Amino acid sequence: QVCPGLRTPRLPVWLCSVAGRHGVLFGTDSQLLSDWKMERVFHLYFYNGQQEQTKTAHLTIDTHSHHWEEDRSEEPSSPGKRRPAVEMAIRTKWAGATVSWNGTDPFF
What we know:
single chain, 108 residues, alpha+beta, 3 helices, 26% strand, Ubiquitin carboxyl-terminal hydrolase MINDY, MINY3/4, MINDY-3/4_CD, cysteine-type deubiquitinase activity
């Protein structure tokens, strides 16, 4: 029998397979699970255990950002518009969200 804590986690956690690598995307605010208003601006952490990742990436997600705030001078297919796979995975749940890496170099 599965423990109730595994069926209903107390904190938001997602196991991810991003670009062929497995990782954990998680939050430390339990209200993110129960209060949709907490989905405005919140923090998530990503860890994949790979040798090149020396610390857990701290991400700030803003689901109410405005698409017109992005730099329009670049074409969507240009290298400057390339987005990390972790960001694209986050956008499968929160479409259009902006992701700030808070000083960590984004990894692809």
